[in-house]
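Hi,

Apologies if this is the wrong queue. I'm a grad student, and the batch job for Nitrite reductase from Halalkalibacter okhensis produced an output file that my downstream script rejects. I'm not sure whether the problem is my script or the file. Here is the sequence I used:
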Amino acid sequence: MSEFLVKDGVKNLQKPGEKLVTTHCCYCGMQCGMHIRVNEKSGKVVGVEPRYDWPVTLGKMCPKGVTAYQTVNHKERILKPLIKKNGQFVESSWEEAYDLIEKNFKQLQAEHGKDAVGVFGGVSMTNEKCYLVGKYARVGLGTRFLDYNGRFCMSSAAGGLMKTLGVDRGSSLPLPEFEHTDCLFMAGSNTAECHPTMIQWLWKAKDKGAKLIVADPRETPTARVADVHLDLKPGSDSALANGIMHLLIEEGYVDEEYVNERCNNYEELKAMVKKFTPELTESITGVAKDKIIKAARIYGKSPRSIVAFCRGIEQQNKGVDNVTLYTSMALLRGQIGKFASGVATITGQGNGQGGREHGQKADALPGYRKIDNPEHVKYVAGVWGIKPEEMPKAGVSAYEMFDEIQNENIRAMHIMCSNPAVSAPNLDHIWSGLKKLEFLVVSDFFLSETAEFADVILPTTTWAEDEGTTTNLEGRVIRVRKVTEPLGEAKTDWEIMRDIAKRMGKGKFFNYENPRQIFEELRIASKGGKADYHGITWERIDKEDGVFWPCPSEDHPGTPTMFKEKFGTEDGKANLAAVDWAEPGETPTTEYPHILTTGRVVFHYLSGTQTRRVDFLMEQCPLPYIEIHPELASQYNISNKDKVLITSPRSNMTVEARITKAIRKDTVFIPYHWGKELAANQLTNPALDPVSRMPEFKVAAVKLEKV
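Support response: The file is valid. Your script probably expects a header line. Output copied below for reference.
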C-alpha cells in the first residue's frame, strides 16, 4: 500500500477506521484533485472527498468524479482471465491465457509477418503505460500496426498546434490564469457539461468583467451564459474563424508588431480572409452577421484574451484546418505567450495530453519524436537497446487499422483501455473487423462491447489500483497514487505487456518491477524532444503539485506559460494559417436532408464502459436521445418523448425525442455514450482529416422518421 497523503487540512474528515489517499480523478483532462476514503481493515475503497488545495479545481468535482470510486469494487469487475470456448467466456488461469496468446501471436506472425498483430492503445492510462504501449508494439511484438483511441479525440488539436506553433501542448497557459482574462472565445466546447470543474474559471472571469463568446450549433449550458452565441452550422468553423480574422484586420485589431516579429505568412492570411466579409461568413455559417461583427469587436478590443476549443471543431474532416485558424486568431491579437492570454485545446480523456506524447501513435516516438526521422529513431532505439533498423516503420491511424483487418494485413489485435466498438465511427465496419480477426485479446476491467468480440479477456486494474503519472489539459504532469490492492486476479496493463513481451522472447527489454522504473526510462526517452520530461521526477511532482513540461533538467522550473520568447518551429516563428473553407465530408441531400452532430452529457464519459455501471449516473441519463428543434419536429409530427428513427447513409437507430429550441433548425444532436443498437456512432461519417486522420464525428447527413 502506498503512502497515505492528505495535503489540505481535511484530516477532520477522516472517520474512525478510515484513511484518506490523495490522488486524481480517472475521467477527463481536468484530472480533479481528490482524496479517496479507504477502510483501514479491509483496504477497500469506500468513498471520496474533494481536494480543496488542488490549484486546478479547488475542491470542485462533477457527478462522474464524485462516483468514480464506485467502479473499483463493482460487482461486474472481471476478476480472472476469460477465454472464449464454444462461444462462451470461461474463467482461466493467467498461465493458460498467456499460453494461448503466445501460441496465436507467434503462429500468425510466423505465417504472415510481424505486422500480422496490431496494438490498439488508449489514453485513460498513465504516462508510464502509454509509453510502454509503444515499446510493447514495436519491440515486444515488432509490429508497425499501432495506434490509439486518442486518434478519435485529440489528434486534430495535435496536428493543428504542431503546424502553427510547432509544439502540441494542450494549453499555452495555466488554467488559474483564465480568471484574469478579459475575453474568452470558446469554439466547439460545451465546458459546463464536458469539463464541469473548469467552468468556475469562466465564472470568476465573468465576475471580473470578462466577456464570453461561444461558437456552437447548440445553445448548450455554456452558450446560454455567453455574451455572444455564434450558432453556426456544423462543419462551418473554418469560415467563421476566417470571418472573424477578416474583421480583426479590417478594423485594426491586429497586433502588427507581434505579428511582424513573431509570425510567418501574414500576407498570405490577409489575402485569404479578404473575401470572408460578414455577409459571406453569414451565408456559409448561418450566423447573423451582426453577431459575427459583435464577437470580433469584443475579442479585438480585449487587452487579454484566450481562444479555447474542443472536439466540436476538431472532430471534422478538416479539424486540423479549424485548429490552425482559431489559433491564428490568437496570434493576430498577439496573445500567445502572455499572462492570462493564449490558446487552449480542452483535453477530453484523462491522459489525453500525456498519452499522445510518448509513442503510442502510429507515427510518433517518445517525447513527440517522429518515426520517419532517422535521428529520432536512432535516439529512441538507443534508449530501448535495439538497432535503428529494427524499429518498425509508421503504421496507420486507428480507423484505418480496421481497413487493414478487412484487407487481411492485420490478423490479430491486442486492444487496451479502449472500446472502439462504441467510440469509432461507422460501427458496422468496426464490428465486421472485430469479427474477422483470427485472434483478439482485450485488456479491460469490465466486459465492454469490444471485449465481447474477444478470444481472450485479460482483467486489468482500475486507476485506484496502480500508481504513476498523468498529464492534465494544461501540460501539468501529476501523480496518481495507488489506493487499494487489485481486485481478484487483476493485473496492471504494464505487467500484462511485460509478461506478453517476455513470452514473445523480448523479456530483456521489459525488466520492470514497478511503474517508477518505467517513468525513469520515459524521462530519458523524452529527453531533447518537444515533450521533454527529463527534468521531472516523482519527488518534484509531489513537492510542487505537478510540473509543467517541457522541463529539460531537474533544476529547470518547468514551463507553465509556453512561447514567451519563441515558438517550437524551426525558425522560432508561428505559422499563420491561410486556409480556405471547404464543405464537410458529407452534406445534406434530398434523401438525407438534416445534419447530425454528437457529443457528451455531464453524467457519462466516452463509451460509457464505466459510467453506465454507476447507478446514480444511469438514473440521471439512462438512454440516448435526439434533440430536435420544434420547427423541424413539426415537419414530422414528432412530439416530446416520441420514438424517432434516424438514418444515415451507413446505418439507423431509434431513440426518444427531446424537443428544444436550444439547437439549430437544420441540426439534430445525439449523445454517444451507449453501445450496440443505441450507439450513435453507427451513424457517423468515417471521412478522415488528411493530416490527423480524425474521423468526422461532428457532421453527418441524416433523415428522420417518427416511429
